[in-house]
């Protein structure tokens, strides 16, 4: 089915939705695809209703301007196939229904075209779909970006880093069976061609408390269960483990080591494979598993009371395993778990109480696991690092897309230090979001030359300051409490907070509150009024969390990972390390800095229900998240000025049919076209503004009215377009026919006048002639030097044609010569000599032309003895000949060998005659087809015998070579009838030549030698 241009096909089952602004008219069915088009944009109920309606139609994505709101469908909607990816590639954001791929693609294109680093911030509650969204984005890039072999390794590693990080950093919680228990920021680096070439991951605040404790219905990190389920038996035995999670205290606190939705065994295989792809060595994996196993053994380490009431370890086997797996000294470990150092150097120790020992053990487990996780991230980063040496050329021209998948706002019954950090992080991100969104709005107004109208919004900086301000902020007070001498306690800390922060509008404690609020805040709690709502935090244990664990023992570990994670300086240095809160504050500040340097896009994830069920939309739960994500605030900022903005061309293209002045095409400036259009539509001045490239419409109502008008006009438009189309077609046909007739007329006239001087009558014809001559040459030029064909030029081009022909020949010859190999060159040179000597002189010459001259006719048949006799003079050519005695003309088989300075005649192994080239006077041959030749040498020379009469089948070749080597090209005589030769002592012999039917050699009259040569080509 073919669709009109404003229809696009979307949806997996071939359903057709109307998209782009067309969706606006279908708004009654599925709401609006962009919240800025909500008429009642301040109403939370309208907002949620829109989400609900779309969710009911399985439309989980909706925009707020450029922000994507995503509702977790809790089922596979089949909207993430490769075909879907292709659909979103290179398509403008608003032209197609909202999707995570649209955000991915838009970000990628912005990075490529603007060469500016980008980031996508994904936020939302646990289980809202953040991690899934970030994986979808990564998959989109992995599939759609160009890759080469090297890059495909990086791409695989980027993808494979997910299962590894999830195994070590994710766990089953009540909200999500695969909940990320750490914040993650991942940079993907692209080269100038837009191919992924590297990556880097930053991890934030792993929830370490999970290592030692899980709430009911929750699990520890996946890796523990995966190892126990999937690890090979030998491996488990080596680690001292049993294949039964029930046996490990740290794994059963939540009473659900098995979860139906998780297959630990197959996940283990995936993780093992991923570790290999990422490039982990076997020893590293072993060290890592030793740490995992040691955490389990720590969990099973029990304490009891000794004879003197001191705390002691009651589970010896665990201690043995621990010392082996951690690579530390057993007694030292025992002491570390049961005693406390009083000084940093650890000379003085005091015994720990039972509770303290348990806490020290748990602290050790958390520290070891936490640091191993950090090591793991660092290791993955090494393997994802952009290798300059490989891609030197692209250095400096790469760009980055960052993906932030970080915990959303959290409020529980009891909120501890971890929730505090998470919520503080959200405050910071919200601030960044407001700053950047406002900034980009403001920038757009500025760029378009529209006056900025200040937007009222709640700036949460006041809460960020409350937490992080120097000296006065929450974290500073916490640091101070931890560092001051004496025993800090939770209560003293709370009092200090009250002293310093009392009176702050966003800080309340039981003591500070009054009336109703007082009841809601416990005595050991403080309340922060966050931008998203109030949260009570328990101070209980706040300080313990910050205290530094005894790490002396682990610093000495043989385990490579641990020795890299725990530095000796940590325990020897007098300086107290930073508290966890300060560390977090600093890492957050760095993250904000990273994000600020990039162009942000946002994905806001919402969880529709707590039961992880598909199709259920719990309004109260969604309302809560809409509030906590600050979506209404977001919409308000976006809607503060204008609800809708589009580039002039897009706007005009869509609505031009609504105004006779702009239909069917507007010829002038786009801005004027839009002005004409909106004037015709009756827009009131307060309803819109015209910027430099865009129209800004204040209320959605205005746009909807315009859309409705378009809808109403469509049938009429259809007829109009149809009529127009038919008319246009026939007009075009008639025009073409007229044009053709005109051309034919001109041609005929020109032909009649073709021999006249150029005049208006023959102008067209002559030009056509010239043009077709030149085009014939262009299309069909001579193909080789031997191709002498050339089109006949029109008279006006005769001279040009000659020039062209010469140039063409020269070019071809030059190209031909350039292609000639040295061997062939030699051959050609010899052939040239042959032609100089024999052309038109000897009858057998024409036949010899196509036959190649060979290097030697004798191959390797030279007699060794002869070669030895010749010594240094190398034989350059040899040929079999027949020698005729000068007297009696007896024929004798000989070999004629040519060296660089003489020729020799050889009979078997004997050197019969040597002819120095210097002494060679001339060479005689007949003009017929025979193979006779006479080498004339001076007879008075004693050394040399007299002239030599030879016959050979390759006479042209032999004489050419001999004449060339002896430099006697001018000394070759070609005789018509007879050749005279010296016999000895002044006597002469004669060879007479005649033509006949076949070659005959006989003794003739007067003692002459009579040679009859076959007549081939009668001349
Ligand atoms: N787009 C989606 N399509 C289908 N299911 C999803 C989608 N997003 C999330 N889910 C489901 O929700 C679960 C929780 O998502 P996840 O991304 O892990 O949440 P978060 O990272 O926000 O805690 C996933 O395991 C998956 O089953
Ligand atoms: Mg997650």
Fold blueprint:
Layout: H1 22-25, H2 27-30, H3 44-56, E1 61-64, E2 67-71, H4 82-88, H5 100-114, E3 118-124, H6 130-144, H7 149-169, E4 170-171, E5 179-180, E6 183-190, E7 196-204, H8 209-212, H9 222-230, H10 233-239, H11 264-278, H12 282-299, E8 303-305, E9 311-313, H13 316-326, H14 330-338, E10 339-341, E11 349-351, H15 354-384, E12 399-405, H16 417-448, H17 461-468, H18 474-483, H19 490-501, E13 507-509, H20 515-520, E14 525-530, E15 533-538, H21 542-546, H22 552-555, H23 560-565, H24 568-572, H25 580-596, E16 599-606, H26 619-628, H27 631-639, E17 644-647, H28 648-655, H29 670-681, E18 688-690, E19 694-697, H30 700-752, H31 763-779, H32 798-819, H33 822-838, H34 845-848, H35 864-870, E20 877-884, E21 891-898, E22 902-907, E23 910-916, E24 922-926, E25 932-936, E26 948-951, H36 955-965, E27 972-975, E28 978-982, E29 988-996, E30 1000-1003, E31 1009-1014
Parallel strand pairs: 2-16, 3-12, 3-16, 24-27, 29-31
Antiparallel strand pairs: 1-2, 4-5, 6-7, 6-12, 8-9, 10-11, 13-14, 14-15, 17-19, 18-19, 20-21, 20-26, 21-22, 22-23, 24-25, 25-26, 28-29, 30-31
Helix pairs in contact: 3-26, 5-6, 6-7, 7-9, 7-11, 7-15, 9-11, 12-13, 12-15, 16-17, 16-25, 18-19, 28-29, 30-31, 33-36
Keywords: Actin-binding, ATP-binding, Motor protein, Myosin, Nucleotide-binding, Repeat
GO molecular function: actin filament binding; ATP binding; microfilament motor activity
Domain TH1: 842-1015
